[in-house]
Amino acid sequence: MTQRIAISRRDLLAQEQGTIIKEWGGKIPICLVFPNTYYVGMSNLGFQVLYRILNSLPEVVCERAFLPHALNRREHTMNNQHLVSLESGRPLAHFQIVAFSIPFENDYPNLLTILQRARIPLKSLERNSRDPLIVAGGAAVSLNPEPLASFVDLFFIGEGEEAVIDFLRVFQEAGNNKTALLIEACRLAGVYCPSLYEASYNEEGRLREFQPLKNSAAPQQVKRQWLKDLVTSGSAILTQGTEFKEMFLMELSRGCPRKCRFCAVRTIYSPFRNRRMDNLLQESDLGLAQGKRIGLVGSALGDYPGFNDLCRHIINKGGTVSVSSLRADAITEERAELLAASRQRTVTMAPEAGTERLRAVVAKGLTDEEIFDAVERLARHGIRNLKLYFIIGLPTETGEDIEGIITLAKRIRHHMAKGGRRIGDITLSIAPFVPKAWTPFQWHPFADVKDLKKKIAALKKGAAKIPRCRVLHDLPKWGYVQTLLSMGDRRVAEILLRVQETNGDWAAALRNSYINPDFWVYREKKEDEVFPWAFIDHGMNKDNLWKEYQKAVKCHG
Ligand code: SF4
């Protein structure tokens, strides 16, 4: 859901609790930018946490900026306005550092739009010492920053909260000398300066080599950083202008102990870390004191050891909890009861595939029976609405797996209605498979867009025959774009520039580009493929990932 109306900067500030306003004098001004609207950005817990951490540093003043709402964008263009920060209304170009937090690949074009509206030259090479330093971090760029390599001066790979302190020291020492800054900064753990590397390609256009420039101190491998202690992870600012306006969000854990083969969570957030219980109890009390529902955030909520105790603590204090999603095999009788006591009306689970065979291919480790047991437990406690996530276009998928989604939904409906219980709504949420860096499926191509459309049509037809069952789906064309940005190397910058020139018209940009996007999207890669992200050390072994890919497609195919 998105915000439908454009709200002025002053009105946005007026409805916030927790805004940090600092004096600029003598501090390093950083504009923290979310490359999407205020509504989307402020719904992102990671962005909020970063805002609080940066402002906790005495030498920094951190303000925020977002992609202007579509209505504001028209007004901006008409009045030739510069994009400004939320807190002080200063143009982005007046900050020393503009820092993008980028969780999703499909927001990459917005980075260019924001730079353009801020009157900052798009390409790093075109900027001079009077321009702000452009830095970026976040899940998407920590997996593969290369499509943005021409536009960003420096990336933080992984959780950069600790690296940022060393970086700011280097930044201050370098003064206005960007070259000196990059040379020093690239020595810091987790910092990647793309201009200090060069790529070469073979005749087919495949990446041959990716190396640091000779005589530069840039490392061969950039090690992803991760935090040992997840202390500050709750909502920093409460506002009506977010998806979670009634909620106080708390991160329980980061990463996931499971190893689903399509999923990048195990790459980007490993190792799996739980927050301390005493810390969470304290933070939940803070949220309760503000009269908020407590939103529990994490990829593996059911694996948090104190999950039941924490929920009970909140409920006993008169509060309620909301969970984003739970694995079916984590929904015990006690948890179903706790969710019901929290008035959770809909529970989200992710079977990912319609058949047990395909679930084995992706290593989901979930049987039909486990899903039905969870549904029955929830229904016994009065929770009858389900949202079920499925991925289509997975390796080895057949027509039977697509039919399997409808069959599974029918059987779920049957289990829900057992004993004459009232049935609820079932939403099948369908997304195309997008290959991700450093997963066993990184070699696998994106499915044909036309085939994906046919599969979605078949799912809609099948769901229409099930009472109170509907299909929500991502558009395959956006899956294609996401794959391009997820798999692409630095040459993809050319396409991003065309998207910018055509005001976001991807079809025209792809048509007119001299490079063929299908090369990254539809090509099945060989074992020896040199990936653009090979220089990032996630602690994973490429040979093991290949073996796992082969096991998936050969043993279960
Ligand atoms: S899909 Fe879910 S359960 Fe599987 S690895 Fe990713 S976060 Fe964990």
Report what the structure shows.
The structure is a single chain. This protein is α/β, with parallel strands linked by helices and 557 residues long. Among the domains are: 22-196, 3-Layer(aba) Sandwich (Rossmann fold), CATH 3.40.50.280; 345-536, Transcription Regulator spoIIAA. The protein is 36% helix and 17% strand. The protein contains 21 helices and 21 strands. A six-stranded mixed β-sheet has the order 3-2-4-5-6-7. Strand 18, helix 15 and strand 19 (426-432) form a beta-alpha-beta unit. The longest helix is centred in the last third of the chain and has 18 residues, at 399-416. The protein is globular, with a radius of gyration of 24 Å. Bound molecules: iron/sulfur cluster. Iron/sulfur cluster binds at residues 256, 258, 260, 263, 265-266, 299-300, 327.
Question: What brief labels describe this structure?
Answer:
binds iron/sulfur cluster, four-stranded parallel sheet, 557 residues, single chain, Rossmann fold, 17% strand, Transcription Regulator spoIIAA, alpha/beta, 36% helix
